[in-house]
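Bench log, entry 3. Co-assembly request; chain sequences pasted below exactly as received.
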Amino acid sequence: MKKNVLIIGAGGVAQVVAHKCAQNADLLGDIHIASRTEAKCEAILASVREKGAHKTDGALTAHAVDATDSKAVAALIEKTGAQIVINVASAFVNMHVLEACIETGVAYIDTAIHEEPDKICETPPWYANYEWKRRDRCAEKGVTAILGAGFDPGVVNAYARFAIDEYMDEVKSIDIVDINAGSHGKYFATNFDPEINFREFTGTVYAWQNGEWTSNEMFEVGRDWDLPVVGTQRAYMSGHDEVHSLAANYPNADVRFWMGFGEHYINVFTVLKNIGLLSEQPVKLAEGQEVVPLKVVKACLPDPSSLAPDYTGKTCIGDLVKGTKGGEEVEVFVYNVADHKEAYEEVGSQGISYTAGVPPVAAAMLIATGEWDAREMRNVEEMDPKPFLKVLGQIGLGTWVRKGGTDEKLY
Amino acid sequence: MKKNVLIIGAGGVAQVVAHKCAQNADLLGDIHIASRTEAKCEAILASVREKGAHKTDGALTAHAVDATDSKAVAALIEKTGAQIVINVASAFVNMHVLEACIETGVAYIDTAIHEEPDKICETPPWYANYEWKRRDRCAEKGVTAILGAGFDPGVVNAYARFAIDEYMDEVKSIDIVDINAGSHGKYFATNFDPEINFREFTGTVYAWQNGEWTSNEMFEVGRDWDLPVVGTQRAYMSGHDEVHSLAANYPNADVRFWMGFGEHYINVFTVLKNIGLLSEQPVKLAEGQEVVPLKVVKACLPDPSSLAPDYTGKTCIGDLVKGTKGGEEVEVFVYNVADHKEAYEEVGSQGISYTAGVPPVAAAMLIATGEWDAREMRNVEEMDPKPFLKVLGQIGLGTWVRKGGTDEKLY
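Structure output for the full assembly:
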C-alpha cells in the first residue's frame, strides 16, 4: 500500500532521500520536503526533476517549517497527508519531529541520535536520554518509529544482527569500521554538518567492553585495519550512536566503533579543539557580542553539499563480528563499498550523504510494504535485517561479506 | 622640565608604560591612563602602587575614554593637562589620537602603524597611507610626533641608524631579526593582541630589496640565524612597520624584517588561516548572526597579559647591518636580550610587552628633556639614537653589539 512521505531537512542527505523517494514513488506515493528554508527544498526538487527521477505523477512539493516546533510539524503532516516522516534534519530537532509523529499517529524514521544544542556527549546509553523515554507512548499509539536508520547507525546495526543470526551461535564482539578513502580536494571540510560532525569527537569515547561502559579520549586508541577495496587504513575508536543500542541488545558482546582519520584531519581537529573553537558554549567578544565558536567554524568551512561535484574515491563501512559457531571461533566482516563519483552522477550528492540517505528510504519502503511496520519504537537491529539488506541492494547499497579471506556479494 | 603624560590603552604594554612612567615621574610629572574600560586602568595603577614604583606624589589617575573619538581624547588632554600622549592602545585608534594631539598641540608617541579595521596590508610604504599625510600639520602646529617608538618598530630603527652612523660610510642591508625564545606553557597564545598579531602575517610580506618593493607570502622565505644567548633560531621574512620608514630613509640599502616562529606556531596559524578563521571580513552564521572570525579566535585565545606569570626564557631582537667603511666590508649585529621572568618581577608583564613598553617611555623622557622635542613628525631613525639608547640602558633595555665574533655592551 502506498504511503505518502514527508522529508524533514534540506541538506546533502535530504537530497539523496528525495531522489530515492522519487525513484520509488510507485511504492511511496506523494513526496513532500520541508525545512526552515523553503528555497533549499525547491533546489532539491529541481535536481530530482532534472534527473527525471520521479517515477509517478504524484505530489513533489516543498514546504517551509520550523522543525523545532512540534505543532508546526504536526500541522504540516496533517496538511500533506504524510504517513511516514523521514527526518534527516539537524539532530537537534529529532525529538520535536518525533513528538509530531506521535501526536498525529504517523511513522517516524531518523538517522542520528537526538542532541540538545548545549550538551555534548551525555551519559550512556545515549538512546535512553531522549528516544527510549518515548517507547511506551509509541507503543500505546501504535506508532512505528525506526531510530538511527542511516548507514552508521542503521545499516551497520542490521549487519551486526545479520552476521550474528547467520554465522554464529554466540557473539563475542562487534567492531564497526567506517572508512572514507575519498578525496574532496579542499584544504579541510567535514562530510556532513560540521556542528554535528565535530561534536561526535569532542566528547568522551564510550565503548561497551567486558560488560561495562568504558571511556577514552578521542584519538587515544587507534588501529590499522586491512579492508576490502580501500586497503589498510588507520581508524580511531570513537563514540557513535549504534554502540549504545547494540550494547543493550547484545550485552555479552564487546561493541566498539572505529572511524578512519588521516593525519591532516587530526591535526586540524586538534588545533581547533585545543584553541576552543569547537566549543558549543558561547564566548563574549571584546565588543560584547556573544558567539558560539563552533557555529563560526561551521560558517567558515565548505558546505558539505558543495563537495559533491569534485569528490572522488570510495567509502568502506562494515562490521567485523566475532563469535562462535558449534564451539568453533568464527569471524566475518559484513560491509558496503560506495563510490563518491557514482553517487554524484546518480543523485547529485557525495558518497557520505549517499550512504546515509539511501537507508532511511529503504526503511520507509519496508514500512509501506508492512514488513517493518512495527507499530512501536525500534532500533534497526531489532528488525529483520534480510528484507532491509535486500531492498538496499536493489536501490543502490550492496552488501558483501568477507569470510575466511574470501569476499562474496550477498545482496 | 617636567611634562605630564597621558597613556592611552590598558593592555600588557600599557602596564609596562605606566610602571616606567611612574618610576621616572621625577622627570615626567603627572601620570594619567585612559582606556575604554576604566577598571583596566585602575588595575594597572594598583599594580604600580603595589610595586611602590611611583617616585613622586604627583597624579596617578585612571580615566575612561573612547579613543576612536578624537574630540573626547582632546577633551581628556585638556582636562588632565597632559603634554605628552603615549598611545599604546589598539593600532586602530592611532590617527584618532594623533588628531587629538594636533588639535591640542601636545606631543604624540605611538608604537605601531595605524590600521583600519577592515583593511589588511595596504600599499607600501605603509606610513604614507595615514601618518605621513599629517606631517605638514604637525610641523605647522609645532607638534612633536614620534612614530613607531616601541621596540620593533622603534629601538630597531635607532639600532639601524646607530650602526650606520657609527660603523660605516655606506649601508648595504638592514636585516631586523626578532626572536622570542621564551615559553608561556599554553597550547597556543599570541604575545600581544591576536587581532593585530595575526594581521601582521595574513597580508603580503613586503621588503625593500635592490631599490624596490618586493612581495612574498608569509612563511615563504625562511632562514636560520645564529644569535647571541638564544642560539640558532629559524625566522621568516615578514611584513613589518619599520621596513616602510627605513626604506624611505635608506633607499640604497636592502631592508628586511625576520620574525622567529616555531613549527607549532606555523601549524596553528596555517590551519586557522586556511580555514578562514583569521579573516577580518564578517561571515554569516546559519542562524543569521554576522561575526568576524578573527574576533572569535581572539576571544578563544588566552589574554596576552595572562601569560606573564608563567613566562620564562629570553628574547633577542636586533639589526644585522652590512655596509662598507673605508672600502672594507663591515657587518655588525646591534641587539638587546630581555628576560620574561625579570620583566614580570619588575612590572608584572612578560618580556614582549616589556620590550614594547619601555621605549616609548624613554622617548617621552627625551621629549621632556628637550633632546627629542622635534616639534614635527619623525620616525625613530630620524632622531639621534645615542641619547635614546643611553636612556634605554638606564631604564631596563641594554644595547649590545656583536662585531667580528665579539659581543660588547654599549649602553
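Residues 5-151+351-395 of chain B form a domain with the Rossmann fold fold (CATH 3.40.50.720). The mean pLDDT of chain B is 95.
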